[in-house]
Amino acid sequence: MSGLVELDGLEVDLRVGGSMRPVLSGTTLQIGRGEAVGLVGESGSGKSMTARSIARLLPEGAEVRGSIRFDGTEVTSLRGADLRAYRRRIAMVFQDPRAHVNPVRSIGDFLTEELRTNEGVPRAEAERRAIELLDVVGIPDGARRLRQYPHELSGGLLQRVMIASALLSEPELLLADEPTTALDVTTQSDVMALLDELRRERGLAMLFITHDLELAGAVCDRTAVMYAGQIVEEQAADALYTDPLHPYTAALVAARPDIDATAARLAAIPGRPLSAFEAPPGCAFADRCPFSEDRCESERPALMPIAAGSSRCLRAEELRGRLHLTVSDV
Ligand SMILES: Nc1ncnc2c1ncn2[C@@H]1O[C@H](COP(=O)(O)OP(=O)(O)O)[C@@H](O)[C@H]1O
Ligand SMILES: [Mg+2]
Predict the structure, then answer these.
(1) For residues 283 and 237, what is the distance between their CA atoms, to the nearest angstrom?
(2) 98-132: per-residue pLDDT in tens?
(3) Which terminal residue of the chain, N or C, has fewer Cβ atoms less than 10 Å from its own Cβ?
């Protein structure tokens, strides 16, 4: 699979008060054409900032180092018309659709504005395309929907509208940032099924962000696990469960509620997740890791290839095959 997106050693600092605070500290990740990659990790680990870096939607004053390549082009230095052209090749769907629409503008205005103002498409034609896309995302009677306002639509319907809007520019990459987290469970699975179907039909690559390991596994080819602003493991989605390569992944797997397991086997990860700016000089997970040794506190591990994936653990080779068996018993 050829690379569409390549993040290499991506570092992002944000301005907090008067100083700069790291939120990504060396994120390395590839997404192939048409490939679905899951990005999982606890809240604050840097998942959204990774997606926003790719979309060039970081907060004002952000400092970016390292590289983001899209289809061979460096994205971090794009400006003006090149940046606008790039943005049409990617689309983003967010957790809370209501936060991303203007409540006093109709669904029709929302869906056709870009086409009408930036591409000069006449209103009737833009509306025809919008209705077609609403049909694609499973919303019949599009003409009526175009005249409605966001508050008249349920969360699930509104998220479908957001997905339709994301498809308007026929992007090659979809950045889906917890697109179903705010929805009820039934709607969640409908929206997931829709994303999955659209992606396959259109050969779209997707970065699917979630804190739900299972959900990532269900729709993604590969999963990357994020901790304190870094990817700590990356491999085929199903292998995460049977053969985790990093103690943090093993702990996430063990902590996940499993209807087949007895309650006694539910293990919580001790301590709290760290953000990148709090990370110690060595391994960021060391103070919560049941396998940590002295050197883990001082030596920062690199993301190294192991088996068919990669792991950012000094002991990855040595612990291989033992992680999923032992971590839940610690
Ligand atoms: N606008 C901001 N300014 C400063 N820090 C921020 C901002 N947004 C997020 N952060 C911090 O960046 C880190 C990563 O956040 P984020 O990428 O949103 O995490 P996730 O999506 O994995 O929950 C967190 O420590 C968060 O507090
Ligand atoms: Mg987030």
Answers:
(1) 24
(2) 998 999 999 999 999 988 988 899 999 999 999 99
(3) N
